[in-house]
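Contributing new complexes? Match this layout with NDP.
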Amino acid sequence: MAPGHPYTLKWGIMATGGIAETFCKDLLCNPEARGVHDVRHEIVAVASSSAVKRAAEFLQKIDGAFDAKTYGSYPELVVDPDVDIVYVATPHSHHFQNAMLALEAGKHVLCEKAFTVNAAQARRLVETAKAKNLFLMEAVWTRYFPLSIKIRELIAAGEIGTVFRTIGDLSINVNADDAKALTFADGHRMVNRDLAGGATLDLGVYPLTWVFQTLYHLQPEQDKEAPTVMASSTKYATGADENTAIICSFPGHGTLGIASTTLRADTDPEKLFPAVRIQGSGGEIQVFFPTYRPLKYRVVKRNGEARTFDCPIPGDPARNGWGHGMFWEADECARCLRDGKLESATLPWRESIVIMETMEEALKQGGISYPGLITTDVYDPKSPLNTGNQ
Ligand SMILES: NC(=O)C1=CN([C@@H]2O[C@H](COP(=O)(O)OP(=O)(O)OC[C@H]3O[C@@H](n4cnc5c(N)ncnc54)[C@H](OP(=O)(O)O)[C@@H]3O)[C@@H](O)[C@H]2O)C=CC1
Ligand SMILES: O=C1OC[C@@H](O)[C@H](O)[C@H]1O
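Output block (do not edit by hand):
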């Protein structure tokens, strides 16, 4: 990179669904619109497992990167020599096999949340990235929000004294009219066990993110303590969890985290109450819904003094004001690669693994299980999850 020139990261996009579209629209935003001058992004290839036509249609949807190559399969994408990093945007069920496909082809990887279906798969991804000297990161975008960075700084600076407890929720009321079924069809990734559906892996990872970034991430390195986990779930008709509560206890630090998620009620129908409360001896920090894309936090001191801070997401005027907030995690990938780092200090590999251990244990205690095809930690390039027959 020439001095003074931004480092450019060249992306290959694996899958053309909802979040791939949102993420790519963020990649297409001018970084200067968010005050970023040191890195930039280019979408050089897009792959759909269903048809090359879908990849071409995707470029129309994102309204940009019209010169990007389009592929009708994931294996073609990962061998494209122009791709630096693959963004894995498939359902949870596919993450392990798809991320392995990319790593084995020598590509760096940003993999959507939930990272994998279980901890063994997460460990295998990390081992592979390490062995091949490749960058790997779980796409928990919330951690890279300036709001999250600020809150971690406030906690570290003692703004609310000693933190003892974090309570977080991410829930959506998707009851059908009769309140028996949910509005999702049984085959939808949110509830389909074959796609690792369920509230915990899809939504629970966000309240857990708040528990982990406030109670685990900030623990001193020499005292890192994984939580003991107590959890309970209720099951939907498909066998996926629809309602889960997880208590994370860090006894060595005297802290407790409580993360909950349900598909049967909203976190806050009136958008008045905090979705996350980080509670310390000197007060608390409240974070408001959406738990995954927060725009506002409030610091409430023990004496009742309170201040609210709005944190709007900067839009790009040249893209009709678009800006969703996923660009900050993309900037992190670019900076890590520019600086020769294989993992992000904001979400280190070890932490992603401990979070997967926590969710795996919670699901086990809740009696939730997933099929062998999507839980195996044995890589198979010919798995239908890679070849698109699943
Ligand atoms: N960070 C965030 O805010 C969000 C993250 N996510 C995460 O992103 C991932 C994808 O979610 P989302 O984009 O909403 O899902 P979608 O169903 O909209 O898209 C998933 C895409 O994966 C590909 N795919 C490959 N095999 C299958 C299969 N058997 N069934 C369904 N899709 C398949 C398809 O693309 P193709 O045909 O082109 O191969 C499909 O379009 C999930 O892991 C989810 O947790 C989701 C929403 C928000
Ligand atoms: O990651 C996510 O955040 C937003 C939710 O609506 C979505 O289901 C989930 O996958």
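Reviewers usually confirm one structural detail per submission. For this one: The first strand starts at residue 7 and ends at 14.
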